[in-house]
Amino acid sequence: MRNSTRLLAPLILAALPAFAPALSQAQEATGPKPPCGGDFGSWIEGVKAEAAAMGQAPATIDAFFSSVRTDPAVLRADRAQGVFQRDFVDFSRRLISQNRIDNGRANAERYDATFDRIEADYGVPRGVLLAFWAFETDYGAVQGDFNTVNALATLAHDCRRPELFRPQLLAAIELYAQGGIEPASTTGAWAGEIGQVQMLPEDILVNGVDGDGDGRVDLKNSPRDALLSGGKMLSHLGWRPNEPWLQEITLPESMDWSQTGLDTQKPVSEWQALGVSGRSGDLGRGDLPASVLLPMGKDGPAFLAYPNFRVYFEWNQSLVYVTTAAYFANRLEGAPIYDAGNPPPGLSGEEMVRLQEKLQARGYDVGGADGILGEMTRQAVQAEQQRLGLPADAWPTRVLLDAL
User: What pTM does this model have?
Assistant: First the structure.
């Protein structure tokens, strides 16, 4: 899913009913927010006027909005955040089941020709799309039952992030005009995504592909359409063909932990000179820029993140989600189970909020005290670890919390 400012793709985890879909760590938009709030009917009239100014026919606009209403369940889902308070090892073990691995490999064979086409046209490996397909909808089995137009209208009317959702609502009108959705009956995720790889209306308009040759783009019922559209979208977002995305590594004891994290990049050749090596297989080309990613600190799993890893954040902004999705893509391509190591316990959600509040009091922008360990919080943690003489691996522990 894509927008000019990034929106976190929802998780539809049929195998994990305790997990609620959640938006998290969404980027703050720049500039004034579009109109939001107030009387819903009056607000809809404003959207209709904007759609008409964009060239939509009055009859199309009226038909599109004829059954629209707000959906309180959408707002409840939007406020749910608990899933992203889990650490990488816990999160990845919950999402990556043997059933998902087996189904992924079976689907790789079933749609072998489609994946060959995606790799030839867009340079996106099959494991990458299989991982998204698995996590978003369990390979198409659970696509969401929220009315798409109601979800988009509800979130565009809500004043939390109207700058993200109003353009999607307007794009949905164009999608309707093209015959791509039916306002009264099209369903999907609570945040307005549609289909087996969960794409927003703008993405469907730009990247929708008729993969099965039936003359229409059907992301709900056609795996070929969904997979090719997802591949085109990743290419549009900057995927670099024939390059890795994430690779498990081993690190030397002499590692300077302050050099780890996504905000530090070095050519692979420099990391090799410092003693970084692949846990299985060789590292990427020596000239590729890469970052050492320690999702749970120096004693947990370690990865080298290449430029393609950053494209994942264009699909989804949660660090724990994208690391898990990128690792699962590796597993589906034959990589071994990662070495979990023995990291110290992380903080509870309540403790993380306290830590973020302390960091904010020291002048750091952590994106809000939401209890979620996002990249901004990790950068602040690393800076404070350096100041306090602790290993600067960006993994917050109770030692750091107590020291602050």
Answer: 0.89
